[in-house]
Amino acid sequence: MYSDNDKRSVPGASQSGGEHAQPESIIAAMDRHKGPLLGTALTIPSTVIAQIIGTIGYHFVLIDMEHSPLSPEITTQMVHAIVASSRGASFPIIRVPSHGVEWIKWALDSGASGIIVPMVNNKKEVDRIIDGAAYPPHGSRSFGPARASWGLPRGPQGGVREYFQRAKNGEVAIFPMIESKEGVANAEDIISTTGVSGIFVGPMDLRLSLGLSGLDGSEPVFMEALEKICTLGQKYGKFIGSLAMDPDMIRSRTQDGMKFLVVSSDASTLSAGLAVHLEQATQESPKTKRPSL
């Protein structure tokens, strides 16, 4: 990754306020933080939940449009809710449904701190993604971030001008997902591409592609794939992240050198938390019968 001597060139690294100043991009936050940034996934279309999550203290929040029926409108509102309720301390990133330029454009124009793009398998695909995500001269992203300023960590006062400058400076992260056997084979071509901020590893789909099952495991072919991606991330100064939904996975992925981990989700946390409270209440009220579902 970056060395201490390189921090002035890291996108979004504060140039004033000393070492304790709040990072202004997720890339700068990863560079500064010794361990991985910890995040949660939002799958429920609710600005109220987004506001609550913003107060918890996660480093980042992944808004999942790929596997959840979230519209561009509610997703934009959730981005702004997270930034406002966390006072810019929690970075919203959007996992878009596909490589389509319309999804990339909508997600970036929300003012999100970055995007995650699923199922990137080769150089041709990643080049197309970067072209749609970057403003000229590095790409062909259309200009129109009218609502993006509400995603700025310090608030919307800087307006479209500040957002545009941040985007041109590389402070908006682009994370292709490697989650297939083909993607692992082409990992160096993908990771080394200019404009790629890092990689998000999709463990479930990667394991399925390798003929395995489950979210995690110690099979040599899977461990070799993770090692290859992480080694290439170190070689090219790119940040690697993934899902890590239990303590063992968090420990393993941290040891792998990953720098951002999704460790929970809104739906699973809501379900588990309510179940715990109900069980506690039932134990204190032994005569109460729970309904049969």
Fill in the keyword field for this structure:
293 residues, alpha/beta, TIM Barrel, eight-stranded parallel beta barrel, 42% helix, disordered N terminus, aldehyde-lyase activity, HpcH/HpaI aldolase/citrate lyase domain-containing protein, metal ion binding, lyase, HpcH-HpaI_aldolase
Description:
This protein has a domain at 26-171 and 242-271: TIM Barrel. The protein has 12 helices and 8 strands. It has helices at 26-32, 47-54, 72-86, 101-109, 123-133, 159-168, 181-185, 187-191, 203-209, 220-236, 247-255, 266-284; strands at residues 37-42, 60-64, 91-95, 114-117, 173-178, 198-201, 239-243, 260-265. It has an 8-stranded parallel beta barrel with strand order 1-2-3-4-5-6-7-8, surrounded by 8 helices.
Could you give a short description of this structure?
GO terms for molecular function: aldehyde-lyase activity; metal ion binding. The protein has 293 residues and is of the alpha/beta class. The chain is 42% helix and 14% strand.
